[in-house]
Automatic annotation (TrEMBL):
It is found in: Cell outer membrane. This is TonB-dependent receptor. Belongs to the TonB-dependent receptor family. It comes from Iodidimonas muriae. SUPFAM superfamilies: Porins. Keywords: Cell outer membrane, Ion transport, Iron, Iron transport, Membrane, Receptor, Signal, TonB box, Transmembrane, Transmembrane beta strand, Transport.
Amino acid sequence: MKPKSNDLTAVRLAVRGLFLSSAAGAALLIGASGALAQDTADQQTDREKDNSLSLEEIVVTGRPGGAGLRKLDASYAITTMSNTAIDKFAPKSTADLLKAIPGVWAESSGGEAGANIFVRGFPGAGDAEFVTLQIDGMPIFPPPTLSFLENSGLFRIDETVERMEALRGGPSPVFSNGQPGVTVNFIQKQGGPETEGIVKLSGTSFGEKRVDMQLSGPITDDLFYSVGGFYRTSNGIRDAEFNSERGGQFSANITKLFDNGQINLYTRFLDDRAAWLLPIPLLSDENGNIEEFPGFDRGTGNLIGNANRLGVIETGINGETRRLDLADGRGSETFMIGGSSEFEFDGGWTIREKFNYMSGDADTIGLVPADTPRTLGDFLAGIDPDAQVGSATFVDSGDAVGLDQQVLTAGMWSVEKDIQSFTNDFSVAKELFEGNSFTVGVFFSDYSSNDVWFLGNNQLLAAEENARRINVNFADGRQVTRDGFVGAPFFDVNAAYNGRNIAAYFADEWQITPDLRIDAGFRVENQNVDATLENVDFGVDLDGDPNTLFNNNAAILNGSFRTIDFDETETSWTVGANYNLTQDMSVFARINNGQKFPHFDNLRDGADTIQKIDQYELGFKASTDMVSVFATLFYNDFTGLPDQRFIDGQNVVIISGSNAIGVEGEFVVRPFDGLSLALTGTWQDADFDGNSSNAGNRVQRQPKLQLRFTPTYDIELPWGYATLYGTFTHVGDRFSDPENQQVLDSYQKLDAGIIMDVDNWTFQVTADNLTDSHGLTEGNPRVLGAQTGTAIFARPILGRSFRFSLSYNF
């Protein structure tokens, strides 16, 4: 793995130093903070808002320039979650929180930064190509997904987040980076006229230790600050036998008020890593029923362990080798700075400016399953059925290994990404006449990724938890392995990519009557991508010795280069209307036409098709004393979809189209004081269309039906409040592949929790996967065809765990 730059080393030290010093300062303030504490009545008010879907809340996502609008009046589907609601949800990762958004299917079983996230039946093989994460209205990284990098891996949720807003479809193809899928906007806490904050200590049943803090207040009468962050350490719920999840984040922002507006500036330092959790060995009978592989726990078992943590791979570049450490896992080491300003002027003019700069590393060192379990004898017979075994031993101990030992192969993949981006959004709004506002804006983004990949590097491992490497030699002197490595890289990348998008957008909003509001928007956007990529030779014998079987079929970078030059312009548009039936009830309709430009990996593989997406929406919102509803009927139609997968060592791209129809909803019933019954659900029917080789097949990885039912009971006690809650989740069956041959059965999951508020103290216990369900979220995407009647690879959800936290609010 390449050495980190001096700048990033300084960032890492800054994260830890600033966090510890700020936490110490917060601790000193606790003793004198009684008069500044938020009382339990305010906390109860926050709960009541969360239980009413917050339809009176002002939202800023999907708005021209980020102008505010009441959620009930918005003509699009948007979900909001306050800091209180996020704490109650207790997500294990950023992607895990997205499960609370109807219309979104998030596979968070890959760990902190290995998610696959899907939206409304939009087809995709993995990652999160139709998901943009924003911070204060600006994309964290403009491309939604690059291979081995999706937006949720670049952001961590902590106590500095005030709320989340998640927009599906709607006007999103026109604003920001033009994301046609879902835009998830995390809005940071800002300081105010009173000093307040929180210090939280957390622990889990699997040994995680974490500390969070946040502090905000005034500097002067019109200048405010907010600082905070977290630090954590853990071996992971899938125990890696070493500290595989570690790191932290420090954030700070400052707000200056003026008579006609305000300016906010922020910075964030993130240095956080976690193991990339991939499919594990399981047994599948002739009917596809899944059973536990002997000796391998479905909920907590991990192939990664001390016996395979460190490895040396051959790159084929002038005899170079690289030492890899699985403790480096998947994560981010980044620095971010950004800000926003808004000013109003006479004559109905408003100017808004937002920017974000981010730079750092987003590397991946992972143990990626390859060949499924079989006996060592069968594995060796696949290499040479006539060969006699000379020796077979465990690498770490030297003990002999029998031919009946169950073995598998898994690659030690190395992906290095140096990323950088700058985004800017400037808009001017003018009230043309009473009730009508016209906005003109310019969005600009410049982003780059310098990539070095070595994929493959397969190892021969015992099929067991924390798997041991095996060395094998044939009796005729041929070496099958080198320190357990049975293969060299099969796919390499050395590439320098740079992209630039510039867009102009126009939006008009007209409050025609007190009850009817319409809006329309148009966007014209140019994307320019240039790249230099080193060419690759395949089937190379790295040492020229046919008897060293472990490196006889390698891919190597060959010193010659090719270039990419992509330059295209496209348009997007949207029209929507919202009508208030009553003061607390409204309906809306929306149509949009969006597009998705190909990004770096698509262009590298020759997939330069621009995807086109048409979306149609009808929605209903209502909130009464007893019931709150937010429901949306949607239909979308896609053309020009590339599906990129690694199959048998080859990078395969399939172009297809699809369509989907569905309904998503959030419902809350409050039958009496203290009790709320919340239901979030999505039903969708998404199929590949007639232009696809998989025409008529269901879009892979996404369930037709998913439901989350959450009853909550708030109890007022003499000494504070207690909240009891649970969540029952149903996930329908899915197919792991577009050929619809790998079935992922439906499953159910039960979570529960209790929150106790006593004066300024909050104690929370959450139980995740209380019944220890083992639903599958992924098969083996590197294998074609059905997988039944054999040992397979698949990725179950994480097993049962408990989290405990104690926080002091002041």
